[in-house]
Amino acid sequence: MDELGVRTCIICGEPKTEGIHIVSEFICDACESEMVHTDVQEEKYHFFIHQMKQIWVQKNA
Ligand SMILES: [Zn+2]
């Protein structure tokens, strides 16, 4: 986190100011919204889950 409040979204990797924090990591509004509306069967859902797992791996490493 920098002084401007811009954080790098762990999903899209882009710097954003609006979003949510999960386990000290950041997910931008666009990705968070997309996650909510993504069908469980879609490949993208699994990508999100994969990204989320990376958080826990990092925190438990
Ligand atoms: Zn994002």
TrEMBL record:
InterPro entries on file: Sigma-G_inhibitor_Gin
Name by which UniProt lists this protein: Sigma factor G inhibitor Gin
Record organism: Paenibacillus mellifer
